[in-house]
Amino acid sequence: MNNFVYHNPTELIFGKGQLSLLQEKAKQLGSTVLIVYGGGSIKRSGLYDKTVSLLQDAGCRVLELPGVEPNPRLSTVKKGIEICRQEGVDWILAVGGGSVIDAAKAVAVGVPYEGDVWDFYSRVAQPQAALPLGTVLTLAATGSEMNRGSVVTNWETQEKHGGTTTFPTFSILDPENTFTVPRDQTIYGISDIMSHVFEQYFSHTPEIPLQTRFAESILKTVIENAERVLENPEDYDARANILYCGTMALNGTLPVGVETDWATHSIEHAVSAIYDIPHGGGLAIIFPNWMRYVYRENVARFTRFAVEVWNVDPTGKSDEEVALEGIAAVEAFFARIGAPTRLADYQIGDDKLQVMAEKATPFGPIGSFKKLTSEDVAEILRMSL
Ligand code: NZQ
Ligand code: ZN
Fold it and tell me: Which residue's C-alpha comes closest to atom 47 of ligand 1?
């Protein structure tokens, strides 16, 4: 196991009716708040009205940044920074999915920064200060509610990058707020959560049994609950379990002491920077192909994955056969829940394949399980067409 320092300061407030704790938080964080939200799902569900009235009852002046796009845009983030500076905003509340939270994080670190907030995404600078940020999560997927990552798209340059920004001070997760997530977004969320685990599970670091079993438990729990939640979107326990898995998959628990990969995320970000496809959809397509491209680097890890997570029976089979059966099981699972399986499902052909491969590797080779050059990425994308 490698050395590590683990620190996660986000207060996780989980369960039915927990939104009521927002008032107490508002009183601690200041009287002028910017609420950040997306294209209107929180208005349709009634969550917007509930949130605003709780904030007003706590004595807050409430300002708004509506209309955050899925794959949030730098231009929207800049609008939020302007509002905060002009109005003297004390803290920010993101109400929505990962895109809303990521945009709110960018605003939070952009306000006290004199340069261009894009510097944090193009690796020119690291944030030194941030406005306090709370979140009310409405979609199980990114883990953004309990980490300091944020992914923003610069539409002018067609670049989508992740930056290290700020942890939310608190996050409120009520599974009932995810009941209205449409079927396709539920599927994308499931694929994103599983992909986060894959990125941290496929590692060459030896002797990491606890991290390995944590990862397998998350995958098994998602697999057990996925079809349940798709059959009945208002199944509280299934939604709750998937929601908690989403947080645990990317809150810093899995990568402690482990060398992690993240190449597939970089590849997907390059695809969605050009084609603006849903993140989880892109991952479901690319991940099985990444696995087929790299599994020979550590066949034992893939055979374990096949047996422990997918119940592949190894009797009478070579290690390689078992590993490949596990990868086929991932692909079959994504197909069974209705995830896209080929780039063609998004009308993506091979015309921009090379451009995407270059965009996925702007700072050099990516990944650690197998270091991938732009040629490797182009091959994985070709396998995904
Ligand atoms: O915009 P609204 O109207 O709110 O609708 C959203 C949006 O259309 C809708 N939605 C969300 N909650 C809902 C709901 N509709 C009905 N009922 C609800 N309760 O779902 C759509 C997608 O929302 P979005 O926030 O884009 O989805 P997600 O949470 O999957 O976030 C995706 C973004 O996060 C980034 C991705 O790259 C992408 O930009 N990621 C962020 C990470 C992080 N910060 O740690 C890590 C991830 O790997 C990922 O890269
Ligand atoms: Zn992701």
Answer: 142
Question: How far is ligand 1, taken at its centre, from the CA of residue 338, in Å?
Answer: 18
User: What residues are neighbours of ligand 2 (ion), with CB under 5 Å?
Assistant: 192
Q: Which atom of ligand 1 is nearest to the CA of 269?
A: 37
Token digits for 56? 């007003």
How far, in Å, is the centroid of ligand 2 from the Cα of 308?
23
Nearest bound ligand to CA 272?
1
Q: 10-residue block means of pLDDT along the chain (385 residues)?
A: 97 98 96 97 98 97 98 97 98 98 98 98 96 98 98 92 97 98 98 98 98 98 98 98 98 97 97 95 98 98 98 98 98 98 97 96 96 98 98
The DSSP result for 288-344, as a single string, is HHHHHHHGGGGHHHHHHHHHHHH----TT--HHHHHHHHHHHHHHHHHHHT---SGG
Residues with CB under 6 A from ligand 1: 38-42, 45, 70-71, 96-100, 102, 138-139, 141-144, 147, 149-151, 177-178, 180-182, 185, 188-189, 192, 250, 265, 279-280
Q: How far is CA 298 from CA 72, 294, 316, in A?
A: 36, 8, 20
* Whether this model's pTM surpasses 0.70: yes
Superfamily of domain 183-383: Dehydroquinate synthase-like - alpha domain (1.20.1090.10)
CATH code given to domain 11-178: 3.40.50.1970
Domain residue ranges in the chain? 11-178, 183-383
Report the separation in Å between the CA atom of 20 and the middle of ligand 1, taken as the mean of its atom positions.
23
